[in-house]
Specification:
The protein is α/β, with parallel strands linked by helices and about 260 residues long. The protein has eight helices and ten strands. Helix 5 packs parallel to helix 6. The protein is globular, with a radius of gyration of 18 Å. The protein binds adenosine-5'-diphosphate and magnesium ion (2 copies).
Length: about 260
């Protein structure tokens, strides 16, 4: 059993107009096997939360804690976070010139496990995972992210998740830019990885449609840099029907 715990997290970025606080006290606890959806309007700080957990250098944690099984995630280097069992797709470089998907996956797997995977089983695992995600085998020989379409990027993300077997996966807008078929295939990939590893999932999304395929146990409404409301799956239905307005207005009035 693993637990990712975020306590009173405050994060700033440097902008042209000075330092801006984006996360204003985020609290969240995710256990193995749980899927938590974070839903919120554009600009509410959802990606900032993901980047901050990933250790992106642009984001400064000014107070609060993030721990994985009691270990201080914020004190870890980016690669240590991955070795500790955190999967954050965006921690990897956007484009890796000259590195094929196949080599990239093998390198990442070796770094995380501390030893190279056995060639025979690894090749079989990669083929199997790519087949599940309806990916062309030729994709393995392409350079990472070079000319990837939005859908290919997302599949590559979930391919990594299936093969790297994290304890906690943080998926930011995995649904963006996917047509219905791709959304279903990618969602099935997440569900498969979940059932194989019993990992925890933090699913960040603006729209409710991915939640038809990946069922959340908990839903958090994220407004103005913090969690404004928490509930079960029924909260996503309410958001679908009513939108974010009432939460945005309430947050504005509280200011
Ligand atoms: P969301 O993912 O919910 O749409 P973001 O986390 O991307 O929200 O952004 C939250 C706010 O922080 C926005 O107002 C955005 O402009 C600002 N922001 C995020 N990252 C940066 C950055 N690197 N530099 C300046 N402003 C940023
Ligand atoms: Mg819980
Ligand atoms: Mg975002």
């Amino acid at each position: 059993m693993s637990t990712l715990e975020i306590r009173d997290l405050h994060v700033t970025v440097e902008t042209e107009n000075g330092t801006k606080e984006i996360l204003k006290g985020v609290n969240l606890t995710i256990d193995s096997g749980e899927t938590h959806a974070i839903m919120g309007p554009n600009g509410s700080g959802k990606s900032t939360l993901a980047y901050s957990i990933a250790g992106h250098p642009k984001y400064t944690v000014t107070s609060g804690t993030v721990t994985l099984d009691g270990e201080d995630v914020l004190a870890m280097e980016v690669d240590e976070r991955a070795r500790a069992g955190l999967f954050l797709a965006m921690q990897y470089p956007v484009e890796v010139p000259g590195v094929t998907v196949s080599n990239f996956l093998r390198t990442a797997k070796t770094a995380i496990d501390g030893e190279a995977p056995k060639v025979r089983t690894w090749v079989k695992d990669v083929k199997g995972a790519m087949g599940n995600l309806k990916m062309d085998p030729a994709f393995a020989e392409r350079n990472v992210n070079e000319g990837f379409s939005g859908g290919e990027k997302k599949r590559h993300e979930i391919l990594q998740m299936e093969l790297l077997k994290p304890k906690m996966a943080i998926l930011d807008e995995t649904d963006s830019g996917l047509d219905v078929d791709a959304l279903r295939i990618v969602s099935e990939g997440v569900n498969r990885a979940k059932s194989e590893t019993n990992c925890g999932v933090l699913l960040i999304t603006h729209y409710t449609r991915i939640l038809r395929y990946i069922k959340p146990d908990h839903v958090h409404v994220f407004v103005n840099g913090k969690v404004a409301e928490e509930g079960g799956p029924e909260l996503a239905d309410r958001l679908e029907a009513e939108g974010y307005d009432r939460y945005v207005n309430a947050a504005a009035e509280a200011k």
